Amino acid sequence: MKEAIALRRETKKYIDQADVKTIKMIHALLEAEKESDWYDDLSEGARTSIERGLKDEKAGRTTPHEVVMKRYQKWRLK
User: Fold this and answer.
1) What's the pLDDT tens digit per position in 49-71?
2) What 3-state class would DSSP assign to 1?
3) Structural domain containing residue 69
């Protein structure tokens, strides 16, 4: 807690001495942090599909890219 208070004080000092360009950059950073994550904007189906893919990956149910490329080489554009 004390560390956070000290960090806030130090940051406020930097902001008080910063030029307009730097203040705008800091403001943009803080605004971007407030915005929701792109994942939250996905449909429920898309999130379910992503979660299923992550579970498959953890369970080892994946095929390496090189294997897929070799298997489907005949359909690739040349």
Assistant:
1) 999 999 999 999 999 999 999 99
2) coil
3) 2-75
Nearest one of 69, 66, 46, 49 to 57, comparing CA atoms: 49
pLDDT the model gives residue 78: 63
* Total domain count, the chain: 1
Given a contact cutoff of 8 angstroms between Cβ atoms, the answer to whether 18 and 26 are in contact is yes
pTM recorded for the entire structure:
0.45
Residues of the chain with pLDDT under 50: none
Burial of 30 (0-12, 13-18, 19+ CB in 10 A): exposed
Radius of gyration of the chain from its Cα atoms, rounded to whole angstroms: 23
d(CA 6, CA 68): 53
